[in-house]
Amino acid sequence: MNLQPKENRLVSPYFAFYLIHTMQVGVGVLGFQRYIAKSAGHDAWMAVITGGILIHLLVWMSYRMLKNSDGDLVAVHEDIAGKAIGGVLSTLFTVYSGFLALTVLRTYIEVIQVWMFPHINTWGISLILLGVVYYFVSGGFRIVTAIGFFSFILGTPLIFLKYFAVKDSHIYNILPLFDHSVTDYFVATKTMTLNYLGFEMLLLYYPFIKHPEKSEKWSQWGVFFSILLYLITAVESFAYYSQGQLKHTIWATLTLWKIVELPFVERFEYIGISIWLFVVLPNICIAVWCVTRGFKRVYSIKQKHTLIPVLILIFAGTLFFKDRQEIDLLNSLVSKAGYYIIFFYIPLLFVLHWLVLKVRRKQNA
Amino acid sequence: MFGKRRQKKQDRSQNQSSGQAKTQLTFEQLMEKCRASKDFVSFTKSDKHPFTISYYKSMVNPELVHKDLIPYLTSCSSLSLKELSQEIPVENIEHTSDVQTIMDSVLTGSVIVQSRPGKKDCLLIPAATAEKRQISVPETEFSVVGPKEAFIETLEVNINMVRKRLPIPELHVKEVTVGKLSKTRVVILYIDGIVNMENVNTLKQRISDIEYDHILDSTYILQMISDDQYSPFPQLINTERPDRVAAVLSEGKVAVLVDGSPSALTGPTTLVEFFSAFEDYFLSWHIASVFRMIRLFGVLFSVLSTPLYVAVLTFHYEMIPTDLLGTLIASRSGIPFPPIVEAIILELSIELLREAGARLPSKVGQTIGIVGGIVIGTAAVQAGLTSNVLLIIVALAALASFTTPVYQMSNTIRLIRFPFLIFAQFWGMLGVAICSAFILGHMLRLTSLGRPYLAPLFPLRITDLKDALFRLPFNRQSLRPMQMRPADPVRFNSQRGKQKNDIEE
Predict the structure, then answer these.
(1) Dihedrals φ, ψ of B347, to 5°?
(2) Closest C-alpha to A209, from A40, A2, A15, A3
(3) What CATH number has the domain bearing residue A251?
């Protein structure tokens, strides 16, 4: 199995910024405020920062691990657990990537169904969106990276829409500071880290970055930019909504868009949701790409052969989860899995890998 | 599987070579073949000097034959072809007995001279007539200021127009002949030392791989050597301006000229290059930058305005502000069609007008434009078939699509509007986004001679942005675009260009 992809398939190190950042920003931004405010109330914006710092740490760990293994997660698994068990672990991670893609897609379809077309059938819109995903993923990793880049260009300007809400906000809403117990902060931080999920795909696309060790700086900036984005959104939402309102607002960011008023257009959320397609697209594309790549690395199946079955499975998945409760369940299940993967599995892997390499070095010496 | 395919290829090439072997005829057979045509003449002028001359009347310059050939044939003291060739005042005379060479040159306007009828060896005297049109003003890429020369159908004149602007020995001209029947001469121009030879080789390889019977214009070549032949986007620039060709050659690009075609191809190219008119370089950089922006905006407007109208009026009418709503209701009340039908009718009639205008002689074409634009438009609104708001949008969109300086591209822009319309009808605003995603994905996958099409946007090349969406002043253009990976990327010394004197110096 060729570990190192061809030179003309690689992307420049600075694209790590877009890859990390766009993967972290997805449907979560549209409604994460309610969840973090559940425990820490108006202080929850601090959880955005603490959660972010943990992610910085995890990215650092991942880079140390990947640098020492000269490959991706599959190579790390093989180093630690051997070919067979490592393969099983890699497969589990790959399946998790697939579920990540499914969650993002299903939630975006839900947003469409709630906000744009209440009666639209899930299967139709799912089919056409997966068609777009197929078109991008079959173009290879460079095209997947490109959609991440364009997602940043198109999606980031939407942050200026916050200006319209600033006029009606009361910044004193977020005062007094430190009004909650430490456990509250801890729970809020835990909830918040789930929004930062997605960076762990780095473990699979790492070899596709040219001079990957140089990309760490960019990855960290990507995480930082995500923190900034979430922070601005959280503070703005806490200043705009009262805590009572926030409890009943599922899509707080989307509701903020509703108040945008321009001389030629009202109800900006229609435009916003359409542009948001470009924000969720890299999420789905990168995750699906990682699934195909994972299978290729573990089982040596050609990526073009796994792509269609994976998309069909995701399609079936979008049909399986029907209403709000089920979608919420899917979200919380995948979040939980992600939580264990990033907070327990990655550190564990980091330590084990370090130990294994140390022992091996000793044996060789 | 691959082995089989290779086998087939070999078979095919063997067939070809056997086909060529058949054309190996004797000199007599060749003459026989030629005599079948009425415009082939073969005669002996005098008994004393039994030189036989044969040529295609339609291909040679009669003056040359009368003045510079026949007098020397009759006055020549010897019967030897060698001495005769020294006496005739024409250069590049060939003395050969190879039938293939004889056939090729007699068909391109050479005169065959034999010492006596039966002999195999002969002289080939080039006497081709060069009928050509006057060099005229560029029509599709007209510019208000700057040179007003356009390529014509004669290859030599076209090469001359380029070489005149780049009088350096490094400007190389390589010739390839393609087309089984048309035997079209295709030349590849590049500046050695600046160009990346990879680009030249790719282009040369693709052109010599062309298998087609007739190549009548450079646009044939354009379509045949494109990286993705199924894409509606042109992947090489087609220009009729020799100054533009000279400019891109000095950037390190490669140009292709085709005999009989009044336009050149240049590449590798990028999407943004299609929106830069050559006039941008004749105007001051501020103005040029603003015009480029306007053109880009024009393209976006042209593609998106009608689909957005359909999307908003069909699904998202809540988006229209109250003040605007009154105007829209007033113009649309009483229209019997849904927005999509209305939009398609109007878009199609604009396309009809354009097509009619393009096919008719220019005088009549103008009338058609006025009749169609004003009379039909007003009538349609008054009859209550379409709303005047949509009429304004469609007319503006059509206008905006014509701001694209490259004709091929403006056609593409008008074409891709229709899928957008259909998506807008199916999924509203979201449909427009989905269609944009498809188009974006398509453009990301496109390459021009193997170089990414969307550069310098993706992959992002900051240094190349100086001449992409806007044009910075010339002193900032010290480096050639990275896109072509030029062998020599430095245009001029940027240090000297940036030197600034003190106030009183």
Answers:
(1) -60, -45
(2) A15
(3) 1.20.1740.10
**CA separation, residue A180 to residues A37, A186, A245 (Å):** 11, 10, 19
A12, A267, A278 ranked by CB distance to B318: nearest: A267
Specify which residues A11 forms β-bridges with: A209
Domain assignment present for A2: no
Place of tokens 């790590």: A16
**Choosing among B301, B434, B442, B463, which should be mutated to test the A contact, i.e. which has the most A CBs within 10 A?**
B434
| Residues of chain B contacting A10 with CB distance shorter than 8 Å | none
The nearest CA of chain A is from the CA of B305 a distance in Å of: 14
Q: Find, among B62, B446, B391, the residue nearest to B235 by Cα.
A: B446
> Is residue A359 domain-resident?
yes
Pairing of strands B122-126, B94-96: antiparallel
Residuewise pLDDT in 10s, chain B (505 residues): 344 444 444 444 444 444 444 457 788 888 888 888 888 888 887 777 778 888 888 888 888 888 888 888 777 767 777 778 888 888 888 888 888 888 888 888 888 888 776 677 888 888 888 778 888 898 888 888 889 999 999 898 999 999 999 999 999 999 999 988 888 999 999 999 899 999 999 999 999 999 898 999 999 999 999 999 999 999 999 999 999 999 999 999 999 999 999 999 998 999 999 988 888 899 999 999 999 999 999 999 999 999 999 999 999 888 888 888 888 888 888 888 899 999 998 888 888 888 888 888 877 777 777 777 778 888 888 888 888 888 889 888 988 888 888 888 988 998 999 999 999 999 999 999 999 999 999 999 999 988 899 888 888 888 888 888 888 888 888 888 887 788 888 888 777 656 667 777 6
| B430 interaction partners in chain A (CB closer than 8 Å) | 112, 116-117, 125, 273-274, 277
Which residues of A are less than 8 Å from B444 in CB distance? Answer: 136, 139, 143, 146-147
Number of domain units in chain A: 1
Tell me whether residues A266 and B430 touch, CB distance under 8 A. Answer: no
| Residues of chain B found within 8 Å of residue A143, distances taken between Cβ atoms | 441, 444-445
Instruction: Measure in Å the smallest separation between the Cα of A136 and chain B Cα atoms.
Output: 6
Token couple for A365: 């010496």
Domain range spanning residue A318?
A: 7-364
